[in-house]
Design brief:
- The structure is a single chain.
- The chain is mainly alpha-helical and about 160 residues long.
- It has two domains: about 80 residues, 3-Layer(aba) Sandwich (D-Maltodextrin-Binding Protein, domain 2); about 35 residues, no CATH class.
- About 35% of the residues lie in helices and about 10% in strands.
- It has seven helices and three strands; from the N terminus they run H-H-E-H-H-E-H-E-H-H.
- Strands 2-1-3 form a three-stranded parallel beta sheet, sandwiched between helices.
- It is elongated.
- The termini are far apart.
Length: about 160
């Protein structure tokens, strides 16, 4: 069964049509990092409640310790849906193109589809711009994160 990748919380159409045709007994949502596990579980409770009501089956949420946990869940068929960034999607797709299928994207309130990341430096570091980073060490986030690794590792150099 081809797993579904959802890039938005607006899953009404998907949940009310495609999932019923598969005659599922439960629906499993993978939740990527960014917050501690309990906060991620809490943030996705409304989606889980809606999914349970829309599908008429129990919805389970999974918040692995890192992005790779969600990727492996999709690849192994243990997760049915995840909201992935470009990097985690690519990591999954490159290993098995049949494991994911993008069906929706997140659209920001202003109509844009991008996002931004913010870098932090100690006040006493002397770093106030990217030019000031030359010769300095930069710490990245999860290697499967678009905003925490992929874009920075390409754009900063």
């Amino acid at each position: 069964m081809k797993k579904t990748l959802v890039l938005a919380l607006a899953t009404t159409t998907f949940l009310s049509t495609g999932a019923f045709a598969q005659e599922i007994t439960e629906f499993r949502i993978g939740i990527l990092g960014g917050e501690n596990a309990q906060d991620r579980m809490n943030s996705y409770q409304c989606l889980a409640d809606y999914t349970t009501e829309a599908l008429g089956v129990n919805t389970k949420r999974f918040a692995p310790a890192d992005y790779n946990g969600v990727i492996q869940g999709l690849l192994g068929g243990n997760i049915d849906m995840a909201w992935l960034g470009a990097s985690a999607y690519a990591a999954t797709f490159l290993q098995d193109p049949e494991a994911v299928e993008p069906v929706l994207i997140k659209v920001n309130v202003d109509g844009s589809v991008g996002y931004h990341s913010i870098g932090f430096a100690r006040k006493d570091s002397g770093v106030t711009s990217l030019d000031d980073m030359e010769g300095k060490v930069f710490g990245f986030g999860d290697p499967n994160s678009t905003s925490g690794y992929l874009i920075h590792s390409i754009e900063i150099p």
